[in-house]
Amino acid sequence: MIDSKDLPIFVKIAEQLRQQISQKGYAPGAFLPREIELAKQFDISRATLRNAMAILEKDGWIIRKKRLGTIVAPDALRRKYRKIDIGFFVRCSLTDYQEYVEIFQAQLHLGYTLRRAVKRRYFVRLFPWFNPISGETPYDLNEILMHKGVDAFVLASPAYLGDVIDKLRENHIPHVALETHINRPGVNSVVLDDEKSIAFLMRKLYELGHRKIGFLGGLLKHVDLNSHCRRALTEFMKQVNCFGINVKDHWIQCTGADEWSNRTVSLGGMVKEMFSGNDVPTAVVAINAQAVNVCINTLKSMGFRVPEDVSVVTPAILNCHENSHQVSGFYYDLDEYADMVLDEIVMNLRNASYRPGKHIMYGAFQEGETMGLVPDFQRKKTLKSNTKTTN
To answer: Which residue from 78, 79, 63, 66 is spatially nearest to 30, judged by alpha carbons?
Structure first.
């Protein structure tokens, strides 16, 4: 065992600074005195002080900023205490109590993660971000990140939190985004494996004889965001080309950027557009549980039967979906998903050298009642067409 008397002076100075931070001599987000002042305080050279500061930086206690100085890392105290304080950035207004209730009860990724954090007895704070009515951000971001004493953050979606993510990365604050985007390296995220799910579903439909397949999506966010819907559509088109399927333009229904630019058509309206005319799909890949329900209900109102006339499948059936046993798609245990998110945060807090990355959660396929063989009238039409071609 090494006697503390034998330790280099810069190691001893680093420990003394740790103690000062732990005893709240310097608050998280506060600037430390300048190097020349600290060197004078400890009666050491600036070179020795820099060696001590390098240890603290490596261990995640401080952040050194060129030309600005050295600040105490926002999560520095968590290196000592075990209780975790997690902030959730959510999109809602400040004053609508019902919105807070809905967020906590939501049967989606954020709701499950929020409830799981409470069950783990973590401190939880909600930060409404981007008022949907005024379009303004209701808080001072620097105040939240640097002076509120929050150890780590969960982001509901990075689509409208670009400024938050940049600050989190810049200040090395532990965080997890519940959806990732491609052009922001260093964002820690836990995502569902929607691409693999789409590929599996397309192969399954093809094997069942389907050659007319539609896609019912949602909001296609900007291409740089690489959102869930965009990833699913990209993989869908990749599989369409792979299997040589001829998809008509109106069989792909989404809103957002590119050729589907900012339409206001409802999901039900999209289904009606998809099934207008004589040539209609025999299967629809619906992006989520909501799209599945709307698709099935709209098809029934139009006189189509599921799955006798049209198969409806989805890359993600959330485990809260009431009729999930009836829908062909993928089962994700969202309690397990929430644990994965929170484990990422704990890992980040306990290991200063930990670097964020993309962590994929895989789903289990379940074949429900909405997937069937290609309808008989379509098979007969295909057989007749093939016969004519042969002759």
So the answer is: 63
Six token digits for residue 252: 């792909």
SS3 196: helix
pLDDT at 319: 60
Considering only CA atoms, which of 98, 103, 146 is closest in space to residue 126? 103
H helices of 244-313, where? 267-274, 289-301
**Maximum C-alpha span of the chain:** 98
Task: Tell me whether the omega of the peptide bond preceding residue 8 falls within 30 degrees of 0, making it cis.
Answer: no
Distances (CA, A) of 357 to 129, 175, 191, 381: 24, 11, 11, 49
Residue 255's SS3 state is: strand
H or E element: which one contains 123?
strand 123-128
User: pLDDT at position 260, please?
Assistant: 45
Residue with tokens 């100085």: 69
Backbone angles phi, psi at 256, to 5 degrees: 125, -140
Residues 153, 87 contacting (CB under 8 angstroms): yes
The ranges of the chain with pLDDT < 70 are 1-5, 22-25, 74-83, 93-94, 130-138, 158-160, 180-186, 224-225, 257-263, 318-325, 352-353, 377-391
| Residue 269 φ/ψ, nearest 5 degrees | -65, -35
CA 189 to chain centre: 6
Separation between Cα atoms, residue 98 and residue 106, nearest integer Å: 12
Contact (CB, 8 A) for 156 and 178: yes
CA pseudo-torsion sign 380, 386, 390, 391: positive
Residue 181's pLDDT is 58
Residue-level pLDDT at 270: 93
What pairing do the DSSP bridges indicate for beta strands 364-366 and 329-332? Answer: antiparallel
In a 13 Å sphere around the CA of 188, the CA atoms on its Cβ side amount to 23
- For residues 370 and 284, give the distance between their C-alpha atoms in angstroms, rounded to a whole number: 10
- Domains defined for the chain, CATH in brackets: 4-73 (1.10.10.10), 81-178 (3.40.50.2300), 194-328+367-390 (3.40.50.2300)
Dihedral over Cα of 185, 187, 189, 192: its sign: negative
